[in-house]
Design a protein that fits this description.
The protein has about 325 residues and is an all-alpha fold. About 75% of the residues lie in helices and about 0% in strands. Helix 4 runs antiparallel to helix 5 and helix 6 crosses helix 12. The radius of gyration is 22 Å and the shape is globular.
Amino acid sequence: MHRVKVKSLTSGYKKILSYILKTTIVIFAFWFVYKKLSSNENLKEFRNLLEQIPQWEIVLVMGLVFLLMLFNWGLEAVKWKRLISRVESITLWRSVESVFCGLTWAVFTPNRIGEYGGRVFFLSPKRRIIGVVAMAVGNIGQMVLTNVFGAIALSIFIYRFVPLDYRLYYALLALSAMFCVFFIVFYFNIKWLNGILLSIRFTRKYKKFYSILARYSKRELLSILLFCLARYIVFSSQYFILFFWLIPEINHLDILMMVSILFFVQSTLPSLDLFDIGVRSVTAAYFFSFVTSHEVAVIACTASIWLINIIIPAILGSYFVFKLNFFGSIQRN
């Protein structure tokens, strides 16, 4: 009887602590979002630009960009379900919930690290650390494409806009090619990482957590990479649509080149999602200045994509934060 009472009391404390944690996460997310949105001059510039455009056109274009955002994170949810199938079977809707919940966590944590926690808490407790490793595999796939396309775009940019001795440029091309090959080979042989960790005495005792790296076949890794490619095409399309809409005189290929460079530079810099807009704006303004003088439109486009792809999903994901149970499995309907 006493044991049952203690267990019930402990369960009650856990529920209270869980609710406090979830509420704190949501409050932090909304506070960060409010502070950043209320002081963002770039979004105000974007609003000023839209005042000169017909209402129906704004609704059509921004609606399309918003739908692409949902499609983008939908692809990520399918990818996450595929990745985690090696660890635990979850429904597609549960995967969607975990992806959006992770976005809420990511918005106020450095380098989006909170996204890992937001997702894996939708798994059963014993599989959460393994889930972090599985998620890392998907992120590495996305990073491979960002680096490969970014290196190619940067090589083209240097050829067109930076005067270099041809020997130096050829050396740069060789380095760029080796850089791309390294990432591709590493990704398709990610099980090597498992072998390296096993060879280290300190990490060997944690092999049950990272042994999943050896389970992915090259065919599965290719499948994951294709999902990453689809996502890359989708969020590149968002930028392309807005830039072509507001600055139609820019060459189509120039937009694609600059966007690839923008992604590449962003991926190499440590940042916080909410303050990442400053990095995005400065980077976009610098590189696009080589192909257009409409700096305000460039920064405004970048700010609007940030709002649609980062802030709105983070707000939507706050609902799913309350469905978590930090001390057990997720709360099921």
